[in-house]
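User: Hey, my collaborator sent me this sequence without any context and asked if I could get a structure. I don't really work with proteins. Can you help?
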Amino acid sequence: MQFTPKIALFEPEEPNTALSSRLFTRNQYSIRLVSYPADILALLQDGESPFDAAIIWPRLKDGQSGINSCLQMKSLDELAAIPILVLSQSKDKAILEAFYGAGADIVVSDPFDAQLLSLQIGAISRLKRSYNEQLR
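Assistant: No problem. I've predicted the 3D structure and written it out in structure-token form, which is a compact way to encode the shape of the chain:
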């Protein structure tokens, strides 16, 4: 069965906006741009269906830290089960490990491949939906 993953995409800082757009326009996603974990929480409280995954960059709009966004998501009961995929242009092991330590489920480093990202998003989305079905 084909489904469209519902993604919360944290807005990256300006240099990565165009790259983010290119990576996610070729495949079928239902994307909601968000700035903060609180935005996702507000959408859910307004009756929007749950997200299959969240995508976070290391540096976000307005100079926010992607690591802090991961920590905030994992600290909120309503958001903790949403898988987090991080897109890092750094290959620095300490940075990648910090994201895993903050709760990221998958950390992908540059160069990014839109097709591979599609497969990874599809995989974590299916796992999330399967988990949700088991809870019912």
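In plain terms: Strands lie at 6-10, 30-34, 53-56, 84-88, 106-109. You can pass these tokens on to your collaborator as they are.
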